[in-house]
Amino acid sequence: MIQALRQNLKALSITLWVVIAAFIGTSIFVWGKGSIPGGDANAVATVNGEEIPLERYQRLYRSYLEFYRQLFKDRFTTETAERLGISQQVVDFLVEEVLVLQRAQAEGVQVGDDELRAKIQAIRAFQEDGKFSRDRYVAILNRAKIDPAIFEADQRRELVRKKLEATVKEGIKVSDAEIRQAYEFRREKVRAAWAQVEISPLMMDVKATDAELEDFLKKNPLRFQEPERRRLEYVLVSPKSFIRLATDAEVERYYKERAAEFEKPRRVKVAHILVRVPPVGGSEAEENAQAKVQEVLKRVRAGEDFAKLAKDVSEDPASAGSGGDLGYVARGELVPAFEQAAFALKRGEVSTEPVRTPFGYHAIKVTDIQEGGRRPLKEAAAEIKEKLQGEQGERAALAKAEEVKGPLQGAKDFSAEARRRGLEPKTALLARGDSLEGMGRAQAVEEAVFAAAPGGVLGPLKTPGGYAVVKVVEQQPAAVPPFAEIKWKVADAVKRQKAEALALSRARALAQAAEKGEDLLAAAKKQGLPSGDTGLLSRAEPAADRRVPGEVMRAALQLAVGQVAEPVTLPQGIYVVKALERRAPDPSGIEKEREELRQQVLEQKRNQAWEQWVKGLRAGAKIQVSSRLASP
Question: Model-level pTM?
Answer without folding.
Answer: 0.63
